[in-house]
Amino acid sequence: MIVSAVVVGLYVLVLLLISLAAKRLSTGNAENYVLAGRRMTTPLITVSIVGLAVGGASTIGVAEQAYVHGISAGWYTAAWGIGAIVMGMVVAKRYRRLNITTIPEMLERYYDKKSMIAGIAIQILVQLCVMSLQYVAGGTILAALLPGIFDMTTGMIMSAIVFIGVTMMGGMWSASISNLLNVTLKYTGIACAAYVAVQLMGGTAAIAQAAPTAVTLDLVDGVGSMTILTWIVTLITVNLSLQSIIQISLGAKTVGVARKGFVLGGLLMLPIGFVSAYLGVIASELYPGMSPTLALPQLIMSLNPLLAGITLAALWAADVSTACNLLLSSGTLFSQDIYKRFINPSVSEANYTRITKASVVAMGLLTFVFALTISGIIATLMQGLSLMAAFSVIVLMTLFAPRYCSKEGAFYTLVMAVITLLAWNFVPAVRVVPHVIYLEWIVCGLTFGVSALVSRRQIVVDEELEHASI
Asked: Whole-number mean pLDDT of the chain?
């Protein structure tokens, strides 16, 4: 435990130093804080999207699923990678050309005020849900890593302090530069842990032979093809429209940098989930009957103390990298689309940055409260992320077919997305498809299309939108 404590302590110290350095870069106008001055390079975009995607759900959550179902659970993280590649190839350039800061800003510019308000509420709600899961995973990791110091609750508190502190100090610069460390640490730690664990088990053949009946090494059997397809559809949807992801692309130096960063990041994500899943399979053989959520931390703690400390610090780094981007984007949604738009339109650059920092703290504390009631990491995440289907329909139509969009379409589509999710949970008769994400796409697509047919109020296609849609 002493070795592990030293490793985690050094990691937190390095994060603090990075944040202090990033604080200097983020001073000046507010854009430096929320979008890194739109000066992020391809490596920074790459590690930022990897850092956001490969968090608690993609490591602890995947191992939790693999403990029960097998290595096919790794498709969850691969689905994130596929989504990032689609984002980079299809819409990253178009988002960058609009010169916006948030998705709700786009809704107000081309639709109406009530669409913007609905968009703010849903985006913040979804991001708080995802953010809450990072506290759960962070608490789990610290409780396993340093059981003499942390239990689940105090581990979540420590995670909250680091998440909020790193984000508040340096904004997007802090999140992106720290991800250079976080991504390197998490990939190195998980890969080394997998190698050592396989050797200790006697090789891959021995692992396959000892696996419980329900835990399979088949790439599809286990979670099943429909679950895999649902993950892919959901995470492509999320990559097209979640504010924290869009904010990364908007911080790129050029449209080409945004595209390259997302494609490279997506490619980097494809294998890491299967490595985490393989560790979950090994844990199911070594520790039958334990809580699946604790499987990966327990396995890692059984390895060499130094390797265990590095690897669990790497998993915690995965949480930190995801949480920082989510907190920053949630704070930006409040400061840009609520405070600056409705409370104080003439706010100075310095006060705007201070409001954003205060919003980061408030959102961080609120999500900690949410985290105390959440269980089942990936299942919870999939429900919340399904609301992104509405934004994806709106964004794709706005960017690619603006002349077929009506002023009322965005608002009614967002409202129907919420109604659909509520109906899915409280009216079982509507469950005519395998997952709510499919119903969301159907309902939102129809709602947007009908609005365009019924209404004669077409959105105004300005020069920026015309340029973006080419």
From this structure: 86
